[in-house]
Every structure is written in structure tokens, then in C-alpha cells.
Amino acid sequence: MFKLKVTDAKLLRDMATAISILVDEATFKIEPDGLKLRAMDPSRVAMIDFEWPKTIFEEYVCNEPTKMCINISELLKLLKRASKDEAVELSLDDKTGRLQVKITGKYSRDFTMPTLEASEEEVPTPKIAFNVKAKTTTQGLSQAIEDAQLVSDHVRIEADPEKLVLNAAGDLMGATITLQKGNDALLELEAKEGSKATFSLSYLAEIIKAASATSDIATLEFSTDMPIRIDFQQQKEGKLTFFLAPRIETD
Rounded to whole angstroms, how far apart are CA atoms 30 and 37? Predict the structure, then answer.
């Protein structure tokens, strides 16, 4: 049995939106210390690692660890009916196995939705040695990605100790976006060695657009031709991290 309650519906809706970018059927681990999700997208190009400790919730009851799989897009339809200052309560009906969604504000409404068979796959956290760590504003990163999208469907991200550079090249046009150490968009930069890797812009753009609603700060970590880790700073020790595999370019 579990019951979760948040008093800011937008917080829950924004997080569900970020999750829905990669997975449609999301298997959550509901444990005494909080809510967790680690899953890969169907193409296994990208991964999400999400945690909300119980301190984020107004009310959090979990008698024993359990798993719950739901269609995140269907849940989003219900959450979009809640305004920012309304409360949302999620609980599981032990008799029917259905998820109960209660939205309380100017008036109260109760919805139920089915749960799905929980995935048994355990997705491990990638163990990668990163040579570059860059902390940016999510707004600055989002604008840089939008600039790159004007000319191509993929982007090469490069870094040295002084700057982070995004290079995009299409059939007709090219773009170079430079975030110099010390400017407003690039807050911190550490580079053990010069590194570069190429990534799909469609994945990057969707991840950053969705996650930017939950965070003002993004931390990128990458090495040459290795997956990139993008961590979006959350409140109260929450975690929202994405991993994206690189495009391996052949000459």
C-alpha cells in the first residue's frame, strides 16, 4: 500500500513530462525513502535516472517496497487538468490494482487508471570516466541547441579548459556556438583533457526542453565518443539525470 501527495501539481506534471520524453510505460520503484525510476528508451539510445526522496512530498506513505508500472502519457492527461496551486494525491487500490488520482483545489475530482505489468529489467547506471564537466544555465543550453537545430540534426560538443563549443553542420549551412568560460550561460567548466562527441539533436532538444521546466541549472559530463550525462539540479535532493549515447562518426 502506498499514498503520495504533492501540493504543487505543476511540480508533478513537469516531472512526468520529462519522464515521458523517453518512456511511455514507466516502472517506478516505490520504497520507504522515496520514489525512483531508471529506464531506457525503446531504441536504447537514451536513459533516465530519476529519484524523488519522500521529503519532496507533503505526504508519503509506503508500508513496503513495491513496483508500479503506468502509462505516463495517460497520467499526464489527468495531471494537465490540475492547476499549479492544486494538490495531487496518488494511491493504489489494493483490491482492483488501479491507480487512484485525486486532484483537490476549488473542487475535488477523483480519477482511476489501470496499472501495467511492471518491468523486471534492472537498468544499471553507466560507469563512465568523464573528462569534461560543464555547468550551464538550462536556458543558455536550450538556446544553443536550438541554434544548432537550424542547420543540422546532430551536433558535435567539444570542450577544452577555456570553452564549450557546439558545432553543427548540414548540407548547406553550418553553426558554431561557443560558450566561453566566465560568460553568463557557462557557469563552471573543468576539462582534464580536450574532448568531443557527437549527439542526436532531436534527443538533446526534447530532453532539455522537458527538463528545463524542473531546473535552471544543467551539468554536462562527457568524454571523447562516449555517452553524455546531463544532470538537472533538483530541489530537496531530488535527481533527474539523462544519459545519451553518441553518434559514432565514420570518415
Answer: 9
Per-residue pLDDT band for 250 (boundaries 50, 70, 90) equals low
d(CA 249, CA 247): 6
Query: Which cell numbers in the block locate residue 1?
Result: 500500500
Which cell goes with 155?
A: 551536433
Q: Which of 154, 152, 144 is nearest to 178 (CA)?
A: 144
Q: State how far the Cα of 154 lies from the Cα of 58, in Å rounded to an integer.
A: 41
In order of their start, the domains of the chain are: 2-113 (3.70.10.10), 132-244 (3.70.10.10)
- Asked if the model's pLDDT at residue 50 lies above 90, the reply is yes
Q: Work out the average pLDDT over 47-74.
A: 94
Among 138, 133, 154, 135, smallest CA distance to 209 is for 138
Is the whole-model pTM more than 0.85?
A: yes
Report the DSSP beta bridge partners of residue 177.
Answer: 166
